[in-house]
Amino acid sequence: MFEATNALGNLVLSTGGTLTDPNAAAALAVGLAALGAGYAERGIGSAAVGAMAEDEDLFVNGLILTVLPETIVILALVVVFIVG
């Protein structure tokens, strides 16, 4: 994941963009938040499905824990509206 972030930064700088541009910073914040949420959901989702396979009463808990990392992306989108 760190290699992708480094490559993204190099791409932005090589195309004449600057990381101090507010719109580029907002886009980078949302993109990295989405990557982080996806990385978190990878482990949570598999554990939730495994727990629900054992006991169907854990469906609500698994659903809440699976959706919880997506709030990070929603908060990152708030940054876009503040900057824009």
Automatic annotation (TrEMBL):
Ranges that cross the membrane: 58-83
Family annotation (InterPro entries): ATPase_proteolipid_c-like_dom, ATPase_proteolipid_csu, F/V-ATP_Csub_sf
GO cellular component, one term: proton-transporting V-type ATPase, V0 domain
Membrane topology, record value: Multi-pass membrane protein
Keywords, alphabetical: Ion transport, Membrane, Transmembrane, Transmembrane helix, Transport
Entry's localization field: Membrane
Principal location listed in the UniProt entry: membrane
SUPFAM superfamilies: F1F0 ATP synthase subunit C
Boundaries of every V-ATPase proteolipid subunit C-like domain copy: 25-82
Family in the record: Belongs to the V-ATPase proteolipid subunit family.
The protein's name in its UniProt record: F0F1 ATP synthase subunit C
Native source organism of the sequence: Halorubrum ejinorense
